Amino acid sequence: MNVHTPPIGKSETATLPAAPQSHAFRYAGGPTAVLLIHGLTGTPAELKLVAKGLARAGYSVYGVQLAGHCGSEADLMATGWKDWLASALEAFDQIRRDHDAVFVGGLSMGALLALLVASHRSDRVAGCLLYSPTMFYDGWSVPRGSVLLHVGILLGLGRFFRFRENFPYGIKDDRLRARVQAAMESGRSEEAGLLYMPGRSLAQLLYLIRDLKPRLPALRVPALVLHAREDDVTSIRNANYLAANLGGNVEKILLENSYHMITLDQERELVIDHSVGFLKRTEPRRLAPPNLSLALNRGRS
Question: Which of 55, 199, 247, 257 could form a disulfide with 158, with the two C-beta atoms 3.0–4.6 Å apart?
């Protein structure tokens, strides 16, 4: 992340920004549902390819748009981690009313929100799909010294900084990366997310992580962790940390030819295949309908 300091002393508008248009999605499928949660400064679009793959396998898939996302930096800064969690919980509760079993998954920060949903709805989450979970910003493209910046942000200095997304933008595929970069630089945040992350928003992510860490040992929900060995944003330390600290069964799979955005990158079909396999192994077994004729015959005897 490149650090940029916004100009100080310019007046800020007192008018609250209009809420961004919704880009949430739904793909109809079977009785088991999957809720997918995008990352910080991201967009539901980053999960659509995986969502379509899960739907082809027979699952109903929903993509939530978190509060403050798919709009401007001002939209994002008007919200915090509790608002993002509230968006995910509201979506989960709505989906749970229509489906007996609901899995929750997410990319990057969305993976952490999936775990928080499981913590708050522990008896109702069937399992978690954790794509490139971001407990630590320690990938190879993250500048040295960022740890000191994080300390400053937690001390309340976040309002003085914003961070530009770094090359290679989490994507190893050259052509896809060029398209995503063009969308970010043109301001089409609903397609590719924001080009800059406000320091205030990064501080909110750090608060979210601080809330999540002590919950991990009590989380006994089954989880699949998918992480790229070459993740440019978050190293495999993140996957190892969750595998070691979550209280339930964890399947950890490392990908060999992707960067951070594994739901878009070169191994997205592998992400779909591993996810479908986990869902099939984990989803609750349904009782077969009773044999009516057998029941009637027993009644006559």
Answer: 199
